[in-house]
Amino acid sequence: MTRRPLRLFAAAALTIAAIAAYAHAHPTKTTPEPNSIVNSPAQVSIEFSEALEPKLSKIQLTSEAGAIVSKAPSAVDAADARHMTLPLPTLAPAVYTVKWVSVATDGHKLEGSYKFTVK
Fold first, then answer.
1. C-beta of residue 37 within 8 angstroms of C-beta of residue 95
2. For the whole model, what pTM was predicted?
3. Which of 108, 97, 96 is nearest to 48 (CA)?
């Protein structure tokens, strides 16, 4: 009778470990926020739910016409690998699209995008 609870506990622990191993780095906070109207920001900043692989993760900003706006590379924060930023030039009033790629340290890749407007 004591072996069955141990087996159930072991199975539950393995299930939890498997779920954790397949985690993806989802955005938890973005600056500027999606669909916001802002003054020209100095940078785009995204915080993710998981640590990122710096060489494989990136942020890109494009204009309404699809042109890349910032030539500077994005960077994952060395002190907090869940945080990535992209420095920006002064932006003219327009709608911009933030495109991001996150690769978690376990190798899982996600990508997404959102828009914001500079007034």
1. no
2. 0.81
3. 108
If one looks up domain 25-118 in CATH, what number appears?
Answer: 2.60.40.1220
Token duo for residue 26:
């989802």
pLDDT at residue 2 greater than cutoff 90? no
Q: Pairing relation of β-strands 109-118 and 37-38?
A: parallel
Closest-CA residue to 57 (of 6, 115, 5, 104) = 104
Q: How many CA atoms lie within 13 A of 84 on its CB side?
A: 30
Alpha carbon dihedral 14, 51, 24, 29, in 10-degree steps, equals: 130
Cβ neighbours, 10 Å, residue 75: 16
- Per-residue CA distances from 33 to 10, 28, 30, 76 (Å): 42, 11, 5, 19
pLDDT in tens, 13-68: 434 444 444 579 999 999 999 999 999 999 999 999 999 999 999 999 999 999 99
Return the SS3 of 118: strand
Going across the sheet that includes 43-48, the strands are 27-31, 43-48, 83-87, 75-76
